[in-house]
Each structure stands twice: as C-alpha cells, then as structure tokens.
Structures
1.
Amino acid sequence: MNTRMIARSLRPLARTTTPVIRMGSVRAMSGSHAHENESFESFSARYEQFFGQVQDLFELQRGLNNCFAGSHAHENESFESFSARYEQFFGQVQDLFELQRGLNNCFAYDLVPSPGVVEAALRAARRVNDYSTAVRIFEGIKEKVENKGQYEAYLNELKGIREELGISTKEELYSS
C-alpha cells in the first residue's frame, strides 16, 4: 500500500457532525502586520462579537451540564415520598429485571429503605417467583444498617411477611 492510498484511507468519508454555531476564525499574527500596534480597546472592539459568541457557548455548555449531570428529579426528595415512590414501583413490578433494577436503585441511596418498601419488594420477589432475590433483600438491609441491633429490628418488623411468604435469611439457611 503506497502513501497515497494510506492518506486516502485515513480521510473521513463524510462529515459526521454539524456545528451548532459558526464563528469566524481568529488568527494570531506576529511580525510587521497592520494590527501590531493596535490598542487593547480597538482589538476588543474588533473581536467583541466573537468573544460574545464564545461566552454564549460557555453558558450553553454550563446549562447542558446542569441539565444532564446534576439536576435529578429526586434530589431533594423527603424520606416519605421516597418510600411512597418505591412502594408504588415494587407494587407494579412484573419481571425479575425490573425488580432487580429497582432494588439496585433503591439501595443506591444513602439511606435504609423503610419496612414498607422492603415488604413491597419482598411481595414483588414472590410475584416474579424469585426466592434468591428475596433472601438477598435481607442481605442488602444487613449491609445498609449501621449495626446488628438495627438489622434485628428490621427482621422483627418484617417477621410477619417473612413467615407469610416463607422467606428465610441467609443466616437461617446456612446455620449448621
């Protein structure tokens, strides 16, 4: 393959992006050109439109970053609305993927889900007929709580639903 063929193969086939805003180019010149003795004021006046467009681009980028990166709908959500939202979500779950996705999202927050949310998740695990996920819900609670006493309190609070659905904890399954 000769250099002409390599250069041709590296050339893009089509333009892939379209610029949002077209701006004139600013060239830095040195030496004896017409603008070498130009004052800052005249330079600023000459390129004011260009710098305004650059500033507009920065503001647009900042707005897009705020839109996509940090402004989530649930940022300032109260614990009660969080619990209600996930109880409703787990009440509507119809397949294992949805259940596991919801559990991952729910347990990703910096709080322990309420017993109502856990009960709804356990009922959803029963509805999709996945016993292992039900056991893992209790493992997730054990990891999220601060101490063993809180975990025992959750187990006592959820004892009725555990007996109703026949769900054992990992400790009960592997105690020999």
2.
Amino acid sequence: MQSRHTRHSEPITKVYEFKEDISINSVEKNGKLPKSTILAWGIVIPLLIIANIIFGGIYMIARAKFQKDKRMPPDYSDLSVCKRKFNAPPLLIISSDGFRDSYLDQNITPAIQRLINYGTHSKFMIPTFPSKTFPNHYSIATGLYPAWHGIVDNHFYDPQFKAFFKKSTNQSGWFLGEPIWKTAQKAGLKSGVFFWPGSEAMGKLPSLWMKYNSSVPFTYRVDTLIKWLKLPDDERPSLIQAYFEEPDLAGHMSGPNSDTVILSHMLLSGIKFIICD
C-alpha cells in the first residue's frame, strides 16, 4: 500500500511542475509571447492612453480653475467699499427659499456675487433634518434642532396637542425655544421681521412685523426693508430678517433649471442690489 501511495503522489507533483516549466520554457525557447498575452496588452495599452488623455484634461481644467480663483477677490470682508451710514450697523438676514448652491455658478445672480466678492460667505451649508422650509428657518432663528424647537416639518401631527401643525399657525405652544428677534429685544434692541417662519407666534413677536401674505409684491417688501433701514438711529431695528418664497415656488412648478427660476433669480438679485446700494 505504501509503494502504491508513493507512486501515485509523484506524478501529481510532476504534472504541476511540468506545466509551469512548459509555460516558461516555451517563451524562452520560441522568443514569442503567447497570443493571450499579446491580446491582453492590446487591450490594456489603448485603455492607458485613453485614461491618460482623460486625467490630463481634468488636470488642465482644474489648473485653469485654480488660476482663475487666484485672480478673484480674497474671501474676507472688504469694508472699504461699503458705504458707512450707520453708527451701529444693523444685521440684515435675507432668505431666498430653495436657492441651490449651483445657482451661483450660472452667472444670473450678479448682486449676490457682489456680496460674496466684497463681503464674506460660506462654501456650503448643512441643513437640519428634515431639510424643509419651516424646520430650517426656525432653526436659524433659535439655534436649535427641530426636535428641540418643535417644528419638525412644514405639516405634521402632534399627538400631545391632538392637532395638525399648519404654516399659518400662530399659537406659541408650537414654537419652542427663543428666536433671535426676541433675544435682541431682551437686550434692549429693536427687531424687524418680514414673513420669517415663526415670527407671527403669539408671545414671540418682533418689534416690527407683518402678517404673512404671499400676494404681497417683492418690491413692496424691499421698499419696507429700505424704509426700516432709513429710520432714525433710535427707531431703526438692529436686526432685520426677510423671507422670500422664490426660487422655491418656481422650482416646484417648472423645475429647478427652468426659465421661471432664472427670472426669479434675476428679480431677487436685483432686489439685493438695491439693498446693497
């Protein structure tokens, strides 16, 4: 049995080594590569050439963009170009609902670009969850997450109240936390808020405000903001917040890159240009 086992195991080892030796010796002997190897290189080399062209193009584009960015105004506040009209400059916060960051790259918002060039800006924004209008705007106002300030969606049901929350709700029980306009008032400052979500809640009203009405023209809203800014020092709000429904409404109706959205961008950009000047 032992001799049979030995005789059986030897051919197995020899066959394995024999195949390896054949593959090597055949190349050395003939001086030629197998057809499969030639075919593989015939595929790999063109792919490497294509990849080199693609990555070379990406590099050239990135380099051109980098050189362009170096020529742009620095990313810090340049107050020398701003007109100094206030002893105590007010804080003006304007919200354009549904404004995607990609809109800044479409050359349709020159006034916003001017604010970026001569002011300061962030590269991106991480919204709260859910990324809806009311939860995020009230988070901006309070500095709290939706779970803490109570506004967890634009529409939702609260089992404790046994009622549905609506955008038109002004009962203070829905709105938890302290909005920034109330904090300003506690510090002896005035606040003016135009249609900001949560600004109509009873007990949390700003010094100056208006009941929400979507039919109020944007031009009237801007005229009101300018009127507030031109008030005497002892009457002017130290904090002004304004909310605009566009381009969100246009985006929902016609798509995020529609002509309607572009027109709303141009309108809002013109509005901001008036305010900046």
